[in-house]
Design brief:
This protein has helices at residues 3-19, 68-78; strands at residues 37-52, 61-63, 85-98, 101-115. It is α+β, with helices and mostly antiparallel strands.
C-alpha cells in the first residue's frame, strides 16, 4: 500500500476512534406519582462518577458516571424511612478535578412520598 493511501485511511480511522465515546440510556428522574400518597418531608441524595486516566484533555474512562443520577435518586428515597418515591424533584450537577480525572456529583432533592394503598 502506498504511504499516501495508507495515511488517507489511518488518519480518519484514528480520528473516528478518538471522537467516538461512551453513551448511556436516558434516565427519567421523577417517576409518575401514585394517585394517593402521603408526603414525608424533604430529602436529598447524591451520586458521584468520574472520567479518568491520562492527561486533562484525554479523560475517557467512565467510572460510575452513567448511573450517578439513578444512585442519587435512590439515595434520596432511602434516606427517609418508608419512602417509595419523590415529587417536586430538583437536579443539580457539580464537578471537581482530581489529579487523574474529573468527578461529577449529582444532587437530587425533593419531597419524599409514601404510597397509600387501599
Amino acid at each position: 500500500m502506498k504511504p499516501m493511501l495508507r495515511s488517507q485511511i489511518i488518519v480518519p480511522a484514528i480520528a473516528l476512534f478518538l471522537l467516538s465515546g461512551c453513551s448511556s440510556h436516558q434516565v427519567k428522574i421523577e417517576q409518575t406519582p401514585p394517585t394517593k400518597y402521603q408526603t414525608l418531608g424533604q430529602t436529598k441524595g447524591e451520586g458521584t462518577g468520574s472520567l479518568g486516566l491520562l492527561g486533562t484533555a484525554y479523560y475517557f474512562v467512565p467510572i460510575g458516571l452513567n448511573s450517578r443520577s439513578e444512585r442519587a435518586y435512590q439515595n434520596a428515597v432511602k434516606s427517609v424511612p418508608d419512602a417509595t418515591g419523590l415529587v417536586n424533584v430538583t437536579y443539580q450537577e457539580d464537578w471537581f478535578w482530581w489529579v487523574l480525572g474529573t468527578g461529577r456529583t449529582v444532587t437530587i432533592t425533593g419531597e419524599a412520598i409514601k404510597e397509600i394503598k387501599e
